Amino acid sequence: MARIAAEGHEIANHTHDHLWLDSAAANVIAEQIRSAEEIIEGYSAGRWFRPPRGWTNHEVAREARDQGLRSVFWSGSFEGHQAKGVAEATRIVVEDASPGAIILCHDGGRLDGPNPQDVDRSRTVEALPGILSGLLAKQLSPVSLTRLIGPQ
Asked: Of 53, 51, 46, nearest to 68 (Cα)?
């Protein structure tokens, strides 16, 4: 995390172990968010939170807010289109992007814990150069959440 932060990237809260919060008890939601905050403390410039899968409810939003976090979601997602192939998914993401867009891309890997996932996201990594060059051609530049939205 120190290297990632030193390179200028923002580190945000995404829960301690990727538990899907939308049906969790209030105390579990609080602990998932608090535990992740303890881990990233000192590395996070912003105070951002994204619930796993974007699944939320009033309790999740309240707890994030009570812990001083701002919930942020995405407006476009490569993963939502990747079954169409890398080129077509890239085209859609770039075409749909506009100023202020937040594009969700995962680099892949395995998640252990309560909702284990083993997903090959090599297509996302393959698509990233095309997504970035397409955005730049539209005169859109990748920026941090703090630069896009403003400080918390």
From this structure: 46
* Residue given tokens 């701002």 in the structure block: 70
**Parallel, antiparallel, or unpaired: how do β-strands 76-77 and 103-104 relate?**
parallel
For the question of whether the overall pTM of this predicted structure is more than 0.70, the answer is: yes
pLDDT profile of the chain (152 residues), mean per 10: 88 92 96 94 83 95 95 93 94 97 82 74 91 98 90 68
How many CB atoms are closer than 10 A to CB 133?
12
Q: Is 1 helix (H, G, I), strand (E, B) or coil?
A: coil
> CB burial class (10 A; 0-12, 13-18, 19+) of residue 124?
buried
Per-residue pLDDT at 46: 63
Strands (E), the chain: 48-49, 70-71, 76-77, 103-104, 109-111, 117-119
The 10 Å CB-count burial string (b at 16+, else e) for 3-29 is eeeeeeeebbbbbbebbebeebeeeeb
CB atoms within 10 A of CB 89: 22
| pLDDT number for residue 109 | 67
